[in-house]
Design brief:
single chain; 317 residues; alpha/beta; six-stranded mixed sheet; four-stranded mixed sheet; 10 helices; 10 strands; 17% strand
Length: 317
């Protein structure tokens, strides 16, 4: 089964329509779900348009941006990121002898789990040989995941990267995908931000984003799930709540900045240093972080106008 959409907000709307029309009810480890009977591939042609402000779905823009920073830091601790999403601690493994950990944390898998920084290595490979078809990021580890009991295992298992026509394409392979919270929510944001970051580092454009999932599903007991499945409109950030704003994307990496320094700054950021060498962290992530703790601050300090509008809409009563 295939679906092609322009951007992430349209991806959400079209996936809701598809799940309502084609999914069937079955049981899962976490309760009843609506599932597609066959694997699905979704192609997103403009993945940098990733901010969904559907009023029923109500994506938390603070969590989405901070989760990306947390991932890029390589952390597997739930403590910092749970400030923005309290449910994160539910996915942690707790051991009285050690700190709690998110076993399947993607950023940790990318940065250190396999004893190699896969992000830095992949960027270097594509800078050296833009025609390479050997650039694969791995999240699934059979030794630590297959047949093991953890509160969290990677749902997204591999990422394939390829430069085509001067743009970086990304294909994400997924064993099991919660369509609302994962595929069209958090995954769509942090994966496309990773794609953009790597494209900036390589010096190429952002290409298409594809997701292959072996099992797309929606949990039937989610609040407002019926209303979400009935959605037909596509919502984009807006300053007045009606008219979508027109803005140029704010690059994650400036031409003079390196991918290594950006990743190091993400590590510093979650350790408390909200002023870093990274222009994006200083101009977007830091003011969003401050706004989370002080809702009286002005969203104008967030220089990415898409995220600024999304924050204002999310905070609006």
């Amino acid at each position: 089964m295939e679906l092609k959409v322009r951007d992430v907000p349209e991806m959400y709307t079209e996936m809701m329509r598809l799940m309502k029309m084609r999914a069937f009810v079955e049981d899962s480890r976490n309760g009843g779900v609506l599932s597609l009977r066959e694997p699905l591939t979704v192609t997103v042609t403009h993945p940098a348009t990733r901010i969904n402000v559907d009023p029923i779905r109500r994506c938390n823009p603070f969590f989405h941006v901070m989760e990306f920073v947390w991932m890029m830091s390589g952390s597997n601790s739930p403590m910092w990121i749970s400030t923005f999403n309290k449910r994160f601690v539910e996915y942690a493994d707790w051991d009285h002898r050690t700190e709690p950990t998110i076993h399947g944390a993607y950023g940790n898998r990318w940065r250190s789990h396999f004893d190699v920084d896969q992000i830095v290595t992949a960027v270097g490979m594509l800078q050296e040989d833009p025609t390479s078809r050997r650039v694969v990021l791995s999240m699934w580890d059979a030794y630590t995941d297959l047949g093991t009991a953890h509160n969290d295992l990677p749902c997204n298992t591999h990422v394939y990267l390829r430069i085509l026509n001067g743009a970086l394409d990304m294909t994400v392979c997924n064993r099991s995908n919660d369509v609302i919270w994962g595929m069209t929510g958090a995954n769509a944001v942090h994966m496309t931000m990773l794609q953009e970051l790597m494209a900036n580092a390589i010096g190429c454009e952002v290409g298409v984003y594809r997701v292959f999932t072996n099992n797309a599903h929606v949990y039937t007991d989610l609040p407002n799930v019926g209303k979400m499945l009935d959605t037909t409109a596509v919502y984009y950030p807006s300053n007045d709540g009606v008219t979508p704003i027109k803005y140029e994307g704010f690059p994650l990496l400036q031409p003079h900045e390196s991918i290594v320094s950006f990743l190091e700054d993400c590590e510093s950021f979650i350790e408390g240093s909200t002023i870093t060498r990274s222009y994006w962290l200083n101009a977007v992530a830091s003011p969003m972080y401050e706004l989370w703790f002080n809702r009286e601050l002005d969203t104008d300090y967030i220089l990415d106008k898409g995220w600024a509008a999304a924050c204002a809409q999310w905070l609006r009563p």
